[in-house]
Automatic annotation (TrEMBL):
<dbReference type="InterPro" id="IPR009875">
    <property type="entry name" value="PilZ_domain"/>
</dbReference>
<protein>
    <submittedName>
        <fullName>PilZ domain protein</fullName>
    </submittedName>
</protein>
<feature type="domain" description="PilZ">
    <location>
        <begin position="10"/>
        <end position="97"/>
    </location>
</feature>
<dbReference type="Pfam" id="PF07238">
    <property type="entry name" value="PilZ"/>
</dbReference>
<dbReference type="GO" id="GO:0035438">
    <property type="term" value="F:cyclic-di-GMP binding"/>
</dbReference>
Amino acid sequence: MSEHERDYAEKRDFIRMRVDADVSLIHAGQEIAGVCVDLSSSGMQVEAPRQFQVGDTLTVRIDSEHAALAGLEADTEVVWARNEAERQHLGLKILKMR
């Protein structure tokens, strides 16, 4: 099995939950608004209004709308990027939960 085939198979070992939640992406001191499309225990797919590169590290923050629930904040790494019109879809690997 090639490296690519193994990586794809491993991606499917995690349950993905469709979220469509507003997120803040923090990169090099800049905060950028984006949308989390889906989320799993190891990563997430995010739609962003600007370009990032594979290997970039981003802090992702999803604020909770419920007072009793804490939001999510994670350090992530861009593992793939796909450009579409004026937006970019990013595959982010979660490196550390805060």
